User: Fold this.
Amino acid sequence: MKIIAHKEALKSHIQSIKKQGKQIGFVPTMGALHQGHLSLIEQSKQHCDYTVCSIFVNPTQFNDPEDFDKYPRSDAKDIAMLESIACDLLFLPELNEMYPEQDQRQFNFGNLETVMEGAHRPGHFNGVAQIVSKLFDAVHPDKVFFGQKDFQQYVIIKSLVHQLKMPIEIIACPIIREQSGLAMSSRNQRLTEKEKGQAANIYKILLEAKSNYRDYSPQSLKQKMFESLVQIDGLKPEYCEIVDDLELKPLNSWQTDQKIVACVAVFCGKVRLIDNIVFNL
Ligand code: AMP
Assistant:
């Protein structure tokens, strides 16, 4: 696997790959890789001729400085994992490569950024848009692969690509879970074994909600989910929301042609976890 740290070197390498008529697939990550990330690389390898992964812990998307400081970093292990599945190229820039100066750009995602993660993590999606647009500029991918795990982020990236008129296809990939049901996440490394057991209840509660959602109104089901999460020792829910998958509007009734997605953010100890489930699949 080729490893490149500088944007200009990356751009000229990508140009030479494109000249060979190859389609570029791209998987941006913040490292501390797990099977969820690797599933995106596998998807890219299936859909494209040349797969690029990036690892960059992006400071501008962290609204909590402690979360940024404690974010797990494991470059050597990540590189070995990427090599084991024959990823073609890793872009591994330093901070000043991506942010030679403060990035003042402000994006506007309307309603998409005022709900859920946007409401609870001020500035988060602006930071995501800053780094993702820079990465897309550098990699020039044909297709990009994002996890449904970060469902709202996926919707925001669709809007970003539309706004910037980038000719990029965005492919959403399913959530990969531990055997316990806990959605894989780099932040899970910060959980104790006991906390992992507690956190596994998040998916149980999402599944339970899906199993009989039509017996409730969206409003009462959200409340029921919230209360179920509160009941679990060690869990502290931040929000439960039930939205459509296009505009992320909180639903008032089940009558919609769109996908219905229940999303939660839950603290387990000091670690903030997110998860979601599609009801009507
Ligand atoms: P991150 O490194 O957390 O920024 O994630 C990089 C990409 O991996 C994003 O598109 C995430 O949605 C995706 N991802 C993270 N966890 C999972 C998972 N458990 N299953 C599928 N994709 C995931």
Q: What stands out?
A: The pocket of adenosine monophosphate is lined by residues 29-30, 36-37, 39-40, 146-147, 149-150, 173, 175-176, 183-186 (CB under 6 Å). The chain is about 40% helix and 20% strand. Residues 124-139 form the longest helix (16 residues).
